[in-house]
Design goal:
Length: 351
Amino acid sequence: MSEVIKHRKDVSDVVISTRIRFARNMKDYPFPCRLNEEKKRKVASIVKEAALGGHSAISDRFKYIQMSELTQEEAVSLVERHLVSPEFISDRQGRGLLLLDDESVSIMINEEDHIRIQVIRPNMDLDGAYDLADKIDTLFDEQLSFAFNDKLGYLTQCPTNIGTGMRASLMLHLPALRESGAMGKISVSLAKLGFVIRGMYGEGTDPKGSVYQLSNQVTLGISEKEAINNLRDIAAQIIAQERAAREVMAKNISVLDKIFRAYGILQYAKLLSNDECMKLLSDLRFGIEIGVFENIDFDTINHLMIEVQPATLMKNIGKKLNPQERDRIRAEVVRTALMRKQVPANRRLED
């Protein structure tokens, strides 16, 4: 199993996804916190027209969503799928969302800033995500006048975003570092370097399933490319630390026992709470990462970690569910996904 860890060429065992986000504001309008409902609707209309009426091949692929028209379950599901921020759905009046057909791009209108362009790509793809976000930013820039200062850069409501207005993030699975108790020390060290590591849904959230968001904090006095390269370098160090911790844990029989128990429960359970399911999926993913299981891919686990969330379950079913109904359907969703994979144990365990 240690050979699996040492010689893995890609980083999909640690990096789940990549996100690039740009914050932009129009110079002729106050920040959203100073806009009344009528002005918010005006801003939303202008941004919508700029996106859908642009001369880009991607324009036809956007769907516009009036946030006030969504049910609570539909709105929360957007957060669970990492398409919008929790703050964005806290007050949906006057807010709109532009969503690409494959959900790789979401543009929040009237969140903290007038425009929040967000691009999400699977695995480690900082350059690809940045290139697409930059093209969309250019599409808007050709039609809108952004608030920009020659010395400060892009102006944003929160001073921490002034400058590039860009946040680059990586979603990381760090079960070994969390189990070893190293995350607190790592978080403090990252803060000193201008980075922050948070829970699965950003600031103030828990790292469910040992999933963390690593993001840059410095946006002023640094170029977008420099910020991305710095994030890539920091991520490489964390990946190396996680893999080293996994190599140690992979030799522990109690860890292997926990992984197999997780697989057994996920394969046969009739009821699964969200917290239990996320913990078990994390353990199963850990098993895949260290080479315990074959014939199952990371994408399956990554997808399940989203699909089992409460609001997303109800959105997919199309009706409200009580907690026990959610637990039953969650278990069924997981069982079905694993049954299709027919996961065998890796023979290397016998060595």
